[in-house]
């Protein structure tokens, strides 16, 4: 993944469109082992009752299933309506395994690849629109969450296939409640070859964390967009 507030995952707000809520700002939390993390409420051996019998059950199977549906889809651009529906069904089942207060989970920190958005043009704004994609080919959409309260979003692209560029944002996290976070971003910065400029103004995004583990994080934007983040 003009500044615009994004709807759900925290990539490029406003003109870039990833909205999210603020992540927690735990200062003394350390990363826990997988066994300890399970004590937070995730049971790898548990299973769920799903409406679609084709869905794999259990968190590990559901994580594998959702990743298989969204990777290499250009953030969801290549998926059809029915395929987006399948992703939403898996996400709905997977959120049943979410820890009780995900904003306090230390696993939120790290580097994430924004592999999917139910509104595929949301992360990246105009650069990802149907018109923008005629000129800009997205190479990567990354979000880095640093303790205690920093978020860095970057969309890397190629202009007309030969000139590399990127748009980046830096923001401050704020916890709204046990699930929702808010990020206030500074004005975006555009780099195109050796040229660099900062433009626009501040923007705000909100995101609800609906699931998180060592591999992925799911987010639901304030406007209903579903995001899938894959840990790098």
Automatic annotation (TrEMBL):
InterPro entries with a match to the protein in the record: PAP (IPR039633), PAP/fibrillin_dom (IPR006843)
Domain Plastid lipid-associated protein/fibrillin conserved as annotated: residue spans: 66-229
Subcellular location: Plastid
One GO term describing the cellular component: plastid
Keywords recorded for this protein, A-Z: Plastid, Transit peptide
Family: Belongs to the PAP/fibrillin family.
Protein known as: Plastid lipid-associated protein/fibrillin conserved domain-containing protein
């Amino acid at each position: 993944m003009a500044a615009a507030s994004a709807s759900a995952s925290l990539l490029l707000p406003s003109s870039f469109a990833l909205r999210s809520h603020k992540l927690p700002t735990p200062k003394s939390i350390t990363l826990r082992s997988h066994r300890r993390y399970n004590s937070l409420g995730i049971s790898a051996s548990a299973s769920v009752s799903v409406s679609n019998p084709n869905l794999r059950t259990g968190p590990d199977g559901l994580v594998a299933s959702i990743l298989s549906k969204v990777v290499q889809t250009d953030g969801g651009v290549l998926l059809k309506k029915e395929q987006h529906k399948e992703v939403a069904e898996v996400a709905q089942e997977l959120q049943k395994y979410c820890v009780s207060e995900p904003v306090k989970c230390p696993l939120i920190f790290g580097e994430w690849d924004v592999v999917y958005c139910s509104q595929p043009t949301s992360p990246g704004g105009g650069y990802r629109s149907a018109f923008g994609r005629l000129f800009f080919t997205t190479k990567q959409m990354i979000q880095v969450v640093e303790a205690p309260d920093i978020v860095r979003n970057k969309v890397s692209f190629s202009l007309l296939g030969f000139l590399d560029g990127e748009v980046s944002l830096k923001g401050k996290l704020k916890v709204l409640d046990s699930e929702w976070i808010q990020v206030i971003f500074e004005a975006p910065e555009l780099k195109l070859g050796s040229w660099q400029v900062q433009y626009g103004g501040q923007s705000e995004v909100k995101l609800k964390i609906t699931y998180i583990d060592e591999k992925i994080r799911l987010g639901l934007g304030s406007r209903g967009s579903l995001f899938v983040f894959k840990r790098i």
